[in-house]
Specification:
alpha/beta, 5 strands, 158 residues
Amino acid sequence: MIQRFIENRIISSLTGGKVTALFGARRTGKTVLMNEIQSKLSSSNKIISVQGDDLDVADILGSHRLSILKNFVAGYDYLFIDEAQEIADIGISLKLLTDSVPNLGIFITGSSAYTLEKSIAEPLIEQKKYLYIYAYSQMELSEDYLTAKRNLESKLIF
């Protein structure tokens, strides 16, 4: 797997009481990167990882009931939500979690940056960090200049 340049920034931003949001177009590797970060953190931490487009998850995280939210994350160090923009008013639930479960690190991804940013911007004024992922950069591909020049046309096409 190609080491993504942004991975270390994400890991260092995953602190209790904060939400790290990773935005990017479809097929840029958000879910793959989320899984890679999970595997690096999982040896000494408990992580709950969910899909925002799962209706059960959307019901729980969209409920805005603090007792339900706290029970959902009880015993975990991290909450990872892929496709978080699918959960109605997710920002309010994330605000409740950051305020009432201060040791919980939260990592969310979304391909609909406008929808997700709009949903979390107001409730999470101080508790969020936005990061963006793009297609692979030349630096991430670890090729020398000559190899990169020879492969450029193929990379641009495919």
